[in-house]
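ok trying this again, last paste got cut off
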Amino acid sequence: MNADKLKECIEKHHSTIFRVAYSYVKSREDAEDIVQEAFFRLYTAEKEFLSDENIKAWLIRVSINLAKDMLKSSRVRKRAELTEDIPCGMGCEDTLHGMIEKLKGEYGTVLLLFYYEGYTVREIAEMTKTSQTLVTTRLSRARKQLKKILLEEGYDEEIY
């Protein structure tokens, strides 16, 4: 891949890849590291992609794998909890996206891919290397968890 094509891919897909990575690692810095590594791997990949959607799906898969690897690493496990208030990573906590960030990694990811990115259950299953049934189950559980968070934040149940 040449530098111009890479720049175009970064401009198109950076926010999506960041959101996917952030939904797992819950750290802006770690998510940015994952994004950087994913685009580096794209740049050095020997693979030929048929379309921009293939590139996007490949980047999402790579970022999920990198996030899971990061979560397994001892560097992440040995972190101490900070006690002072720190601004949230992607936006304010009271935004819908901020509430989705509170969900467990795979639940936040499926919601992001389904609602924000418009992927089908089948496409998400292929990207995450899981079954369509598991994706559907995760979507259902994610919606329930999100509803619970919204209710705890004081939103009226009638809007759901």
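PB: full thing came through this time. The longest helix spans residues 3-25.
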